[in-house]
Amino acid sequence: MTRYISVGMAFAAVPWLLALDKPAEAHGFAGERFFPATIATDDPFVADEMSLPTITVNPRAGDGSKEIDFESDLAKRITPNLGFTLQDQWKYTTVPGAPNTYGWGALQTGLQYQLFVNAPHELIGLVGLKASWGHTGRVNEAGAPDFTTLTPTFDFGKGFGDLPDSLPWLRPFALTGNFAVGFPTKTTSNGNPNANTLNYGVALEYSLEFLQHHVRDVGLGVPFDRMIPLVELSMTTPINRGQGSLTTGTVQPGLIWAGQYFQIGVEAIVPVNSLSGHGLGGLVQFHMFLDDLFPDSIGKPLLGE
Amino acid sequence: MRSGKILAGILAMFIAVAPFVTAFAHAFPNRSIPAAGSRMAQSPTEIRIWFTQKLEPAFSHIEVLDASGARVDRDDAKVDAQDATLLHVSVKPLAAGTYKVVWHVVSVDTHPTEGSFSFAVMA
Q: Closest chain B residue to A213 measured between Cα atoms?
């Protein structure tokens, strides 16, 4: 039933989405604001970009297992305002007293539409529908799902460069965030409930590039004037099937360096509760701007530009 | 495993074409005279901004505004003939006050960026 609800929501959204036709810049620009591609928080913009790889060492799980993920993401514009995403990850898990396991996770795809870009207020919004496809990964060995999950999403970004000049040190701040509801197409797997989930997160960023070149020259040169310290919060709360108290999430402080053609991100992973893991984890990501690397070929929209 | 093979194929395609492209990028400011947020003892005669990429002269502009929003530049913004990463505009003699520099540029691969910063003249 939930499958039909989410698919219906997606189709219902199409007419009014098509009625809005604001040109979107590849990359995460809203006026003067450059939003980097954050790691835990979905980006609020369509883009021609690719992460290869994202290597994540997760906090240790409650059963003592430790998972390392090697992930790649691709975002590609179809038109200037419409894009799709592809994502997959290869997991390697060490389990005390048991053989190590490894294999591909579920293939994830997404369709995104740039809902609005307000340049003066550095405000940007995006809606989308993501799908995590069942039986596209190694189900038994690597824990990939045996069911498909459809997830309508809303992502937003807000830069604070429009604050008055009397608050200069606050103007480099920006906030991005996402709200999404996941609808699994199968209610149970091996006797365990697959709950609908509320997925939400925010990333609070402080752009040293904005500070140095838009607010006040504080003497930052290369490479420091392209750095963006940030902290991300990524949460998931099941909302039915008796799973409501099982909220999990992570807090991820880190640093992104955004250059002309690529960016590098490094973050620590701190679980918010014991259900989310124990101890610290970490990740590193290499992220390429395809629109800058390949402006005349795969870096531009497939249609409409 | 099938999804992995699909993803590997897509990634291989991107990697395969990488050596055969010419790289350009969005133009970000590198430095400027006056610097962002600076206080100048006397009026500058020109605003100069250096960018990280070469600029497209036809679509790259600077405006300088006083506190009331009136333009105080001489409307002669141009990309430097010897250095295509430098955009400059001359300004009228500026009285003491705060001024805002607003720039819109397009890099040679047609990527647009925009920005602004303020500076003050003390006397």
A: B36
Positive or negative, the CA dihedral A214, B78, B21, A110 is positive
Answer yes or no: is A303 within a domain: no
Question: Tell me, what CATH number does A140's domain have?
Answer: 2.40.160.40
- ipTM score of complex: 0.82
Domains of chain B, start order: 25-121 (2.60.40.1220)
Examine the pLDDT at B114 and tell me if it is beyond 90: yes
Based on the structure, what is the number of domains in chain A? Answer: 1
pTM of the model as a whole:
0.86
Average pLDDT, chain A: 89
Domain that holds residue A92: 2-293
Beta-strand relationship, B112-121 and B39-40: parallel
As a whole number of angstroms, the distance between CA A227 and CA A78 comes to 30
Percent of chain B with pLDDT over 90: 75
Task: Assess contact for A199 and A235: CB atoms under 8 A.
Answer: yes
Judging contacts by C-beta atoms under 8 Å, the chain A residues touching residue B18 are: 293-294
The gap between the terminal CA atoms of chain A, to the nearest Å, is: 39
* Chain B contact residues (CB < 8 Å to A): 1-4, 6-7, 10-11, 14, 17-18, 21, 23-26, 28-29, 31-32, 35-38, 52-53, 98, 109-118
